[in-house]
Write a structure and sequence with these properties.
Blueprint lengths: L5 E8 L4 H9 L1 H4 L6 E5 L2 E6 L2 E11 L3 E6 L9 E7 L6 E9 L4 H19 L3
Antiparallel strand pairs: 1-7, 2-3, 3-4, 4-5, 5-6, 6-7
Length: 129
Amino acid sequence: MAELKEKIELEYVIKTSPSILYNRLSSPSGLSEWFSDDVNVKGDVYSFIWEGSGQEAKLLSKKDNKYVRFHWLDDEEEDTFFEFTIDVDELTGDTALVVTDFAEADDKEDAIELWNQQVDQLKHGLGSV
């Protein structure tokens, strides 16, 4: 039996407005700037392409300038997802990106490192380094 995946939550402060960040998290053009090489959308299925290989995810839910949640179609665990949440600190006004993902215990460190690299690319594209 496959090992159950562990939930990972990572938070990154990003110096940009929630609306600009949301566009990078929810639109094919925004996602292809930092998350994958190319993104195509048919209905609620997003096809992410990296160096010629692809993976599809279904858009589960979204709320403008707040969050976007996807589920990988090839993931057999029904209750796993990856989600981008935009959190604005009421006191400081800082915008944070919270990434929620699931990974098997053996892959957890690799998954965190990959997210760190991806978000660095996002910050660079936004001029928020």
